[in-house]
Write a structure and sequence with these properties.
Rossmann fold; alpha/beta; 28% helix; disordered C terminus; globular; 6-stranded parallel beta sheet
Length: 261
């Protein structure tokens, strides 16, 4: 269900929240939402431009989408894969987001190779970030992404936009190299400007381990430097937060606004 409450008024103009049920119900809801957006995009303009994310929750969603239940309902030949961020490791490294998505099931689907655009973050991050931005502009031809899929870390980061990092304040780029002092490393990431231009933005938050940070992000006054996920969503392009009941446990008493499909 989508829920709202008077105390959410400070963020409700930019965000919707779906709580479909337990972990499995939320995975099913996420898969159905993905397929709905995909089918509508293909019907509208003949292609589906999606940016994937790293993390355990997106991985579970990818596995669900590539399962026998959902795989036949997707026209994989019309899908164009991008990534919202990438670690500075080679594409065969176990921490690589591209590799994770491929191993979660995408590699077995009939997506043309030229429509799979991984981030080359293993070297020359600043140069390759500019090249990735050029690829986005070339492939999308001025269209927004149909869907950008995001997760959220326990510190409130999303993509590789971590608390108190320079990338949070960049407004004239789509993709950047962002230094993460707390991890002592560089990563490539889409910017808030790029993410917030998407037709559909979804942040998936599953599990009891995320209940404190989810409540902090959704219920606290905007603290963009400390909680980067609060950057996501605008009045024109609202972000949909999809959380299971365990992750939403600290959100308090809410009233139903409308039920999810």
């Amino acid at each position: 269900m989508l829920i709202s409450n008077e105390k959410f008024s400070s963020w409700d103009e930019r965000r919707d929240l779906a709580i479909p049920g337990d972990y499995k119900a939320t995975l099913r809801f996420s898969a159905e939402h993905f397929i709905d957006v995909c089918q509508k995009a293909i019907n509208d303009h003949g292609a589906f431009f999606v940016a994937l994310s790293g993390g355990s929750t997106p991985k579970a969603i990818f596995e669900e989408l590539c399962s026998a239940q959902y795989q036949p309902r997707i026209d994989w030949s019309k899908m164009h894969l991008f990534w919202s961020d990438e670690r500075s490791v080679p594409p065969d490294h176990p921490d690589n987001n591209y590799l994770m998505a491929m191993n979660a099931g995408f590699k077995k689907e009939r997506i043309p190779k030229e429509q799979i655009h991984r981030m080359h973050a293993e070297e020359k991050l600043e140069e390759n970030a500019l090249l990735y931005e050029q690829t986005i502009r070339k492939e999308l031809q001025g269209r927004p992404f149909d869907l950008i899929m995001l997760g959220m870390g326990e510190d409130g980061h999303t993509a590789s936009l971590f608390p108190h990092t320079a990338g949070l304040n960049i407004k004239d780029r789509l993709v950047i190299a962002n230094f993460i002092p707390q991890k002592k490393c560089w990563r490539m990431t889409m910017t808030c400007e790029c993410i917030n231009a998407a037709a559909h933005i979804v942040i998936y938050v599953l599990g009891a381990g995320k209940k404190e940070i989810l409540a902090d992000v959704l219920l606290s006054p905007d603290q963009f430097e400390r909680l980067p996920s609060q950057h996501i969503g605008t009045k024109e392009h609202k972000a949909l937060w999809i959380a299971d009941t365990a992750a939403a446990a600290m959100l308090g008493s809410c009233k139903t606004r409308r039920k999810a499909p």
